[in-house]
Amino acid sequence: MTLTLLVITLLSSAVLGFVYELTKEPIRKAQEAKINTAISNVLPEFDNQPSAEATEVQYDGGTLVFYNATKGGEKVGTAVKTFSNNGFGGLIELMVGFNADGTIHGIDVVSHKETPGLGDKMETSKSGFSVQFQGVNPEDFKIRVKKDGGDVDAITASTISSRAYCDAVQRAYNALKEGGK
Questions:
Q1: Assuming Cys at both sites, which of 9, 91, 153, 172 could form a disulfide with 96, CB separation 3.0 to 4.6 Å?
Q2: pTM of the complete model
Q3: Is residue 76 part of a domain?
Q4: Total number of domains in the chain
């Protein structure tokens, strides 16, 4: 009986290791493609490879990643992969695109675990929530929900998710302003 259990365990471990090795590279490529798509969605047109020139910065208890975009050698904007741990479902990761003048060009959700039908409305494919951030300068626009004295209309029945979204956007702007890259 012990020998049978040992053989089953060894075979299971070998199969699991094989599947891991087989899927590791496709998963990495899919994640890289998702990041590149998010960068393209949040920045004006560019002609360089921002993901190849990424800069990681430790900021506010986590890691932010800066992607500088240029066109014809001139900087057109910076995408910042940012986060908030305050979502209803925990970690929220966003890609926030800033124009060269500091205004927000666009925002895309990279990952979250918010409630389907409520907090997941932060995704651009599910609602127009992120549109209110486009073209605004965070110096003049209070990136807090209106319940907290800000200028952001929260997602109905998802104030916690809306606050976390604002937290992530504000973190990205603060880091950029403090010389993030």
A1: 172
A2: 0.85
A3: yes
A4: 1
